[in-house]
Amino acid sequence: MIRLEKLTWDNYDDVLKLKVAKEQKEYMVPNSECLIQAFFAMTESKAQVFPFGIYFGKKPVGFMMIARDVPWIEEYCGSHAKYYYIWKFMIDERYQGNGYGKEAMLQALNLIRTFPAGEAEYCWLSYEPENTAAKKLYASLGFVEKPELYENLGEMPAVLKL
Ligand SMILES: CC(C)(COP(=O)(O)OP(=O)(O)OC[C@H]1O[C@@H](n2cnc3c(N)ncnc32)[C@H](O)[C@@H]1OP(=O)(O)O)[C@@H](O)C(=O)NCCC(=O)NCCS
Predict the structure, then answer these.
(1) pTM over 0.90
(2) How many domains in the chain?
(3) Phi, psi at residue 47, to the nearest 5°?
(4) I need a surface site. Which of 9, 30, 68, 88 has the fewest CB within 10 A?
(5) How many CB atoms lie under 10 A from the CB of residue 25?
(6) CB of 11 shorter than 6 A to ligand 1
(7) Whose CA is nearest to atom 13 of ligand 1?
């Protein structure tokens, strides 16, 4: 029942209403700000950014942004291989703990493995080390932490071989 839907003019405001819990705000800027960051990543660098709404049936429950060629992965993680980057990811506080996050991540990885913006070897993401929910979820999907790169990035990077 969970599906990723590309954000367009017609549905982008669905995700603007979604929020994380108060104690999770340090992990994620508001979704509106994520879209502004996407604009600058695309206009000021060669990044490609693909924002998605996460829907349970017709109900918007979360937001995700997949990116490619974001300069900081090359700069801070030293990755010169081709990669996708799960840049932003949230499930609204009202809908957390129902398995939606895991299902959305599985679908995102399936999508990435179709290489919609060109082939790649790796998928990167990063998170605050104390973000237990994110850390456990990503580890369960096979992401491997790279603590040696933590200081460079200021967040814990983790990588999955596609
Ligand atoms: C991280 C997040 C997306 C998980 O979404 P979710 O829909 O609640 O997650 P799920 O219900 O699919 O749970 C998947 C796994 O995550 C882990 N998890 C989820 N909530 C957890 C919690 N409160 N404590 C510990 N582990 C948790 C568990 O391993 C769980 O698997 P299990 O149920 O088999 O143990 C959600 O907590 C969120 O939006 N957090 C705020 C924003 C954020 O931190 N985004 C990530 C930034 S990198």
Answers:
(1) yes
(2) 1
(3) -60, 150
(4) 9
(5) 11
(6) no
(7) 99
